[in-house]
From TrEMBL:
Residues 215-229 have a biased composition (Acidic residues). InterPro entries: ScpB_csome_segregation, WH-like_DNA-bd_sf, WH_DNA-bd_sf. It comes from Oribacterium sinus. The gene is scpB. This is SMC-Scp complex subunit ScpB. The keyword Transit peptide does not apply. Residues 192-229 are annotated as: Disordered.
Length: 229
């Protein structure tokens, strides 16, 4: 009796493939066998069999999409024969262009983060409202907290998009600054905390340490997975 119920509840081969197809399309990234198993409500071995069936079907029909196996995971990708046409479209897309001002501002934030706009302006020597706002719009920097000082100024830091755009695995992988430049940046930030924010000299290091601790303790939000539009 139990076996009959299980057979009735079991997915057909076509249903398994339909679900995996939807999963691969919706996530738009490599999908592990464990994730597929959860989707199909079955073991990893069964999920792999279903994934292989679907992969071979896409391969045999020679359409515009393929399912590739990459280090034990699967991903839906465009067929190589479509690359030239896709590249023509991508080249027409308007991409954010970073000017020298944007790059200079971004570099300061990357190496001094978390940092306030006032600190950035002190280092650059000019107002940086537009540059900071544009970097936020481009998704390269974001608000990471507030400094515990008069006015509670916003602290900015870089985003995952920044790491992706510049091909960096982590902030620790950023190229090292020359010692004299690193010292200069540190001095400028210290002066800004002391002067513009009205902090006493003995409170400067404390404020800098607190803002770093606040950023470390702030829990990361899980990104929402969305379907390709």
């Amino acid at each position: 009796m139990q076996e009959e119920i299980e057979r009735e509840d079991a997915l057909s081969l076509q249903e398994e493939e339909d679900l995996l197809e939807a999963l691969l399309f919706s996530l738009g990234r490599t999908v592990s066998l464990e994730e597929m198993a959860i989707c199909l409500h079955m073991g990893v071995d069964g999920a792999e069999l279903a994934a292989e069936r679907l992969r071979k079907k896409y391969e045999e029909r020679k359409g515009g999409l393929l399912i590739r196996k990459l280090e034990g995971k699967y991903q839906m990708v465009s067929h190589p024969k479509t690359y030239d046409a896709l590249i023509r479209v991508v080249k027409q897309s308007r991409k954010p262009v970073l000017s020298d001002v944007h790059l200079e501002t971004l570099s300061i934030i990357a190496y001094c983060q978390p940092v306030t706009k006032a600190e950035v302006e002190r280092i650059r020597g000019v107002k940086s409202d537009h540059a900071v706002n544009r970097l936020v719009e481009f998704g390269l920097i974001e608000e990471v907290g507030r400094l515990d000082a008069p006015g509670r100024p916003v602290l900015f830091g870089t985003t995952e998009e920044f790491l992706t755009r510049f091909g960096v695995d982590s902030l620790a992988s950023l190229p090292s600054l020359p010692k004299d430049l690193e010292k200069l940046l540190e001095e400028e930030v210290t002066e800004e905390l002391k002067d513009s924010l009205g902090l006493e000299p003995e409170k400067v290091e404390e404020a800098k340490e607190e803002r770093l601790e606040d950023q470390k303790e702030e829990p990361d939000e899980e990104p929402e997975e969305v379907a390709d539009e």
